[in-house]
């Protein structure tokens, strides 16, 4: 049983020289004016570009869903990478390349992405469980 646990743990946690971590984020953003432009070849190319940039940044895209008017990502990242930085890098890179490769995006939109985004941290342990664990530390 401990062998199975250690395999699961090694998949769940990452290690650096100074930390052990499991940091996940759910990210959402939309094209400018929420236009439905992420279709066909643009959808396919966007996925390729996201994976390329993620590899360069050292993040893992665990799940990706491109809808015509929004992007949903579940990523795992090093705790030294701020979610804002990750979103900025992904949006900036994909916007530049897609607008070069698909001129129709330049004619339809002044910029590809809105300035805003949604981020929520996602963890293996729930907030109530963490609160309970911390509270119980007083009694140990």
Molecular structure report:
The chain is of the alpha+beta class and 140 residues long. It has one domain (20-139): 2-Layer Sandwich (Alpha-Beta Plaits), CATH 3.30.70.1290. The chain is built from 5 helices and 6 strands. It has helices spanning 2-12, 40-57, 83-101, 103-108, 127-136, and strands at residues 14-15, 20-21, 24-29, 60-67, 70-76, 118-122. It has a 4-stranded antiparallel β-sheet, with helices on one face. β4 and β5 form a beta hairpin. α2 (40-57) packs across α3 (83-101). The longest helix has 19 residues, at 83-101. The chain is elongated and about 65 Å long.
List keywords for this structure.
two-stranded antiparallel ribbon; disordered N terminus; alpha+beta; elongated; 140 residues; Alpha-Beta Plaits; 6 strands; 4-stranded antiparallel sheet
What is the first-to-last residue Cα distance?
A: 27 Å
Shape: elongated
Q: State Rg.
A: 19 Å
- Element-level helix/strand string: HEEEHEEHHEH
CATH homologous superfamily assignment = Transposase IS200-like
Query: Helix share of residues?
Result: 40-55%
User: Number of helix segments?
Assistant: 5
Number of domains: 1
Average pLDDT, rounded to a whole number, is: 89
Query: Which stretches are low in confidence, meaning pLDDT under 50 for 5 or more residues running?
Result: 1-9
Number of strands: 6
Give the C-level CATH assignment: Alpha Beta
The share of residues in extended strands comes to: 15-25%
- Major beta sheet summary: 4 strands, antiparallel
Sequence of strands across the biggest β-sheet: 4-5-3-6
């Amino acid at each position: 049983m401990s062998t199975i646990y250690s395999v699961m743990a090694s998949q769940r946690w990452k290690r650096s020289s100074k930390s052990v971590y499991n940091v996940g984020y759910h990210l959402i953003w939309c094209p400018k004016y929420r236009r439905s432009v992420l279709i066909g070849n643009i959808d396919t190319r966007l996925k390729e570009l996201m994976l390329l940039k993620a590899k360069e940044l050292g993040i893992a895209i665990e799940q990706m869903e491109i809808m015509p008017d929004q992007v949903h990502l579940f990523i795992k990242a090093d705790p030294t990478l701020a979610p804002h930085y990750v979103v900025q890098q992904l949006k900036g890179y994909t916007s530049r390349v897609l607008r070069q490769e698909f001129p129709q995006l330049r004619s339809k939109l002044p910029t590809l992405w809105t300035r805003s985004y949604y981020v929520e941290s996602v963890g293996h342990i729930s907030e109530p469980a963490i609160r309970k664990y911390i509270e119980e530390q007083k009694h140990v």
